[in-house]
Specification:
By secondary structure, the chain is an alpha/beta fold. The chain has two domains: 250 residues, Aspartate Aminotransferase, domain 2, CATH 3.40.640; 109 residues, Aspartate Aminotransferase, domain 1 (Alpha-Beta Complex). Helix content is 39%, strand content 14%. The chain has twelve helices and eleven strands. β4, α7 and β5 form a beta-alpha-beta unit.
Length: 368
Amino acid sequence: MFDLETLIRPNIRAMRPYSSARDEFAGAAQVMLDANENSLGSAGPEVFNRYPDPQQRAVKAALAPLKGLDPAQIFLGNGSDEAIDLLVRLSCRPGQDSVLLVPPTYGMYEVAANLNDVAVERVPLTPDFELDEAALVSIGHSAARLVFLCSPNNPSGNLFAPAAIERVLGTFRGLVVLDEAYADFAAAPSWTTRLAEFPNLVVLQTFSKAWGLAALRLGMAFASAELIAYLNKIKPPYNISETTQRHALAALADAPRFAALRAQLVTSRQQLAADLSQLALVERVFPSDTNFLLVRFRPDATAVYAYLLTRGIVVRNRTTQAGCAGCLRLTVGTEMENQLLLAALAALELASTTAVTREASISTSPAA
């Protein structure tokens, strides 16, 4: 039987959270003299002299029916990175506990662990970036307080098999944090639909990817109301700005635009994958359920990366990540950006072929 209280650090269970008057008051106030704001207004053309709603009630109320959840099951953070950091702080005692990662995966999990003086256990994925039987057994036997599973995974782009995730949820003794930052691009239901089955499950999502709101830095965590209450207990009092809350509400009201962006990116991903596969310098385009592609280049991915930089094209070099030797991660861009990328790679391929032909000609000439 899963017992959340045993995973919460004792000092956090006992602490009294910071409480503002905005947390304690419900309703519309005529006079607000509680927070030492500038009651006269703001410098600049827009008025932002009042602190934002510390619980982001309007955004959660709009988000809850979209996710089929209660607002009490929603945490909003300054990017998903805030939720990642708070989850580590919530459950892991510095210098004593550990988190478990399945590399290659999103780098901020390890950053949050290191920042909080928490050890990192690693159970690597297979060469095809899957959770095999050996990995599932290791995870089930781990004494780590958290396991982070990114599905669809970054940088590999693939979804983990539902049966593998269920196995982790059933055998791991700590919190299972399922990062669905890219789930909107995948043809599979979100694990938010199964929160009631698994009290140890936390699902992370973001407004940065399919919603196209990366500059707002707004992340989401979904879990039991009890766990979300603990995250709210330890978060900064006004962690989501008024501007961010307004723009999030506008985006949530514009569902057709969201659906169109998502569909267009999925179509572009499929076309870009097909075009890349035709290039001789591309060894493999890995299957993707995201808005990016992991691509293995031959013979030297770092040289390809450096060449693209000379053309003003910035991609992500993943060659040093576990299982990603020879790989670059390419975000799906606009049609024009994708064509510029393909043209640059074709030019590099032609130059390489010409150089090889010239060298072969020199080596076989009578003068040689």
